[in-house]
């Protein structure tokens, strides 16, 4: 195991222009509230499932979507690969949380370090959320988030077990890349020149979540995005 249990003293870091890691951004009350919401989203109106990649290979993570339904490699309004229903809308509180996350990463008007060239928080209205659940042994290969028609930043929230998060470059799945640990409550935002960087999750670290987060085992990752679709 590469990390200590329940670390709370990690430092904010920038892995590239527009790629910002803020450890421990969500407090435990917020984490527990999100976990409870995820449990409801997982049962419908479109249930959580393992998306199937081209060629028939299912992903090792389980996914449920809000706003738009994602399947490799496209968005649709109806979940044609799992019953044909329409997914739930992105709730207002989650949109607000996304704007707060962007302000935390890039600053807000009147704050030191404000970077409106990356994206203005007030202009951030995510219309889809992908909720991924990583059970023990689940992983995510290196990929780009490029199914959206918008270049707005991706906001990523982590709850539960720590994972190894690999953040690379915009040209290739291979090196150079940086491995960091994303723990429960961590925020990671990538936009601007880093928006289309390859990234993935080689592994999770079972047993590393603080019980106060509300998730007994595994890892939840929520990514908020603007699709640019109507």
TrEMBL record:
According to its UniProt entry, this protein's organism is: Arthrobacter gengyunqii
Q: What's the source species' lineage?
A: Bacteria, Bacillati, Actinomycetota, Actinomycetes, Micrococcales
The UniProt entry's GO biological process terms, in alphabetical order, are: oxidative RNA demethylation
Q: Which cofactor does it need?
A: Fe(2+)
Where does the Fe2OG dioxygenase domain start and stop, copy by copy? 125-228
Q: Which GO terms describe its molecular function?
A: broad specificity oxidative DNA demethylase activity; ferrous iron binding; oxidative RNA demethylase activity
This one is known as Alpha-ketoglutarate-dependent dioxygenase AlkB
Binding annotation for Fe cation: 143, 145, 199
- CC annotations in GO: cytoplasm
List the keywords (alphabetical): Dioxygenase, Iron, Metal-binding, Oxidoreductase
The superkingdom listed in its UniProt entry is Bacteria
What the entry lists under InterPro entries is as follows: Alkb, AlkB-like, AlkB-like_sf, Oxoglu/Fe-dep_dioxygenase_dom
Cofactor info, note text: Binds 1 Fe(2+) ion per subunit.
